[in-house]
Amino acid sequence: MELLETFVQIVKYKQISRAAESLFITQAAASNRLRKLESQLGVKLINRIKGQSTISKTPYGDRLLVIAKQLISLSHDVQTLKENAEYSKIKIASTTNVIEAALSFIIPQVMKDDPLLRFTIKGSSTFGVYESITNNSADIGFSFTNAPRYGLSTRQIGNQSLTLITSQQNEIPDQIDIDSLSPSNEVYIPYNEQYDQWHVICWGNQIDPYIRLDSCSSFSHYLNHGKAWAIIPKSLAQQYINHKFPIKEVRLIEPIPKLPIIAIDNLANPYKKKLDDIILRFRSFLV
Predict the structure, then answer these.
(1) pLDDT score, position 210
(2) Ordered structural domains, the chain, with CATH
(3) pTM of the model
(4) Which of 14, 173, 234, 284 is deepest in the core (most CB within 10 A)?
């Protein structure tokens, strides 16, 4: 097939040198391929005029060009069909916080164990996650909120630990209690209704936070404020610390509630076994 592709490129550019550049090969290699193709067919395909860099097709070249383009297109279609037949394509709908806290760590390992898996991961609101499973636009969903729906399987597959973090330059001590933290310095992330209720019990709702975010994906941009603090998934905090990001964990004396990770899917999903493997990996990650 490479002989035909080289011939098509030579015809396209009308110069062997430019065709060679487009194929990332030398001019000599392109010339050799053309000669080999002409030898195999027993006909002259290209007219070369001494002293001119451009070339033209012979009548045989005209006829072969049509056939060559068809064969190349069919070859590409066959290869695409083969690849699509081999891969299992799984669509995941997840809240952004679960993506940041867990999926971004788990999915690469799943793909390493099974190279024939391909994923599409769509970040969404909790409502959007459940809708995606309901209308079959996703195979499985993950959320911190359990909102059972008729026809869907919802199950808690583990808990996500949270931790208090701040900048390394912050004067907050390594251990602190709730009363010593001002909500006016908080980078606040609402994870689910239960977390919000705990947060109100601890700090009330009379003082606005320093900033309110929809997800934990961009919390780090707002910790430069002198006394800023945030509560984020422990796995995410550990990743930042491992990468030498200037944050530190602070032990909150009062316990921070864990977030339940809920898996949502349809029982009749054709990828049920592979989805169960992902959930098993999730459980191991959360231990």
Answers:
(1) 93
(2) 2-85 (1.10.10.10), 87-159+260-286 (3.40.190.10), 162-257 (3.40.190.10)
(3) 0.69
(4) 234
